[in-house]
Amino acid sequence: MHTTGGPGVFKYEDVPQPKPRQGEFLIEVHCAGVNPVDTKIRKGKYKPFRPRLPAIIGRDVAGVVRGVGGKARKGRRSAFRVGDPVFGMLDYDRGAYSEYTIASAREIAFRPKNVSERDAGAIGVAALTAWQGLFDHGRLKKGQRVLIHGAAGGVGHFAVQFARISGATVIATASKRDLDWVKGLGADEVIDFKNQRFEEHTGNIDLVLDLIAGDTQDRSWGVLKTSGGAIVSTLTEPSKAVARKHHARGMRMVVKVKTAQLRKIASLIGSGRVKVTVAKVFPLRRVTEAHRCLENDHVRGKVELHIAPTWTDLAARMSENGGTPSQLAVYAGTGLSGLGPML
Known about the structure:
The chain has helices spanning 36-43, 117-120, 124-137, 154-166, 179-185, 214-220, 240-245, 259-270, 287-296, 311-320, 325-331; strands at 24-34, 60-68, 85-89, 100-104, 108-110, 145-148, 169-174, 189-192, 207-210, 230-233, 249-252, 278-283, 302-306. By secondary structure, it is of the alpha/beta class.
């Protein structure tokens, strides 16, 4: 993007391949998640970070290490080697909407074999936000009651599952079409936020995870337990004065890169205890459509970009690992998921 603004600011064009410096890794990107924060950065309305233009944005990444910067110190080997499958969440100054990007060891983790690239590309921002909102900031514990607003979205659908696994009682708000789906994720109760006032249907809440803000946040104070409750918002800073009035905590959180948490979440996904829902997948050249979808459509789960290697690269790697041209042709229209160990 050479300017900030609407989805149309994206330009699909060639740029030089980035070069990793000491301690960095060149990542061939196969999948990249698209998050609401990406749309804010695109508009130039995200206060924690304004891109230096021209910019490539996008924080969620899943792919393969293709280069290692610098030389390993004597007696030490690099954290990752060429060919390692990885995933993670990039810092703001680099982007995943590209065939190649740069990552530090702090930003990526090994992708388990039982976690697909598509699922891994959807973990980063959304899953870490859900985890940190519930446990780092919300201090959620087994037996407590949590209310999750916006439970059908990217962050919300992870939060419902994480809270369930922790042993909490999970109450969620969602639209009518998503009630059964969110309940299937593990929510004990799901409230139709358009046709029901949640404060009339629940109470004695230990933690509210606010992914909506506005009037929803204002009304959430009334459902907290009489003392010791908390509201954690990803959007708007809750009023400190109102928090004191309700003998509660209120805070706005910003997600941080924590690779130990990435590994834990990937383990839960690999074991089948957590499911990743990807609503739609777009090729890189249709990133404008991906952003319009996220902003305007009803999205259940995540929106993602599929950034495949060139077919020449695929053919070479398949040949090296026992694949044939005919197999490449079979998978040409299906993306990378069926190529399996040949890649």
